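Tutorial handout. Part one gives the primary structure; part two gives the three-dimensional structure as tokens.
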Amino acid sequence: MGKVNNNNNGRRYSSEIGMGTRKEKTAEAVFGSMKNVNVQPTVFLTASGNTAPRFDMNRTFYLPEDTPIDAFVLRLVAVDDEGDVLTYSISGSDAHYFNLDSRSGNVTLKQRVNYEDTTIMFLDAQVTDGKSVPVEMGITIIVEDRNNNKPIFQNEPYFTDVPENTAIGSSIYTVLAVDMDSGNSGRVSYSIEEVNPNDAENHDLFYIHYNGTVFLNGSLSYNNKSTFYRIKIFARDNGGLLHGQFIYQNNTAYLSVTVVDVADLDPVFLGAPYSGSVPENCPLGTSVVKVQAIDQDKNVNDIIDYSIISE
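Part two.
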């Protein structure tokens, strides 16, 4: 739409305004004939800011304790909208266990880990595009146990004295083996591998309970059987993974059993039967016969008393 106006000075001007959307304005000043034209252009400024990178990855990872040095552990992954080159870093009290490729984000194992010492580890991961403030994210690494420990017998060596009249089924000693692994890998079972003197009867003379208690399974005799036994005890865990294979760890210990003699045998007369004679007129106190008895218990020095029992 155009419009022409006249004023008292005989000046004429024209203006054009675009309707609906904003359009560029044009002003024309006319003084009889055109003397001067000024055009001021509109300037549009566009501001463009850098976007910081962001992590795009899990926060929790699992690390078996038998992982070898230099093995791959995890990869730091971040994205940047502008496609800038990213640089990674790690820090924290557990960072010394790992090596990091700052460009690829690959984290490898630098130092062996031990589940019995450390079950969980923490890392602070950082990423930067060189333009923005570094972005941080916490990472949790859970150390997984492996069957890398064997049962260890406690308080060795094992010795015990057992009276020869100990009842069958009595407990005579308890051993203990400790496995530092967790779960089934740390549960220990026991068995008797050998008994010396090594013969069939002695092998069954003892048995061992699941808790390490050794029981007497037969009779002892200081005089008629062995006075000493050496029991070989085998301890084994319930198995577990190690370097990708299911294995069992075991150990052995020895229990020395000394049989103690007790007064369980009657004295025996030597040279029996006895007979004697005396004159009818012998005085009182005259010796008629001398008897002698010995104790069958070899290591018991009991005093033998004699008496006459009339029949």
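Part three, for discussion. The CA atoms of residues 13 and 29 lie 6 Å apart. Residues 1-48 have pLDDT under 50 and may be disordered.
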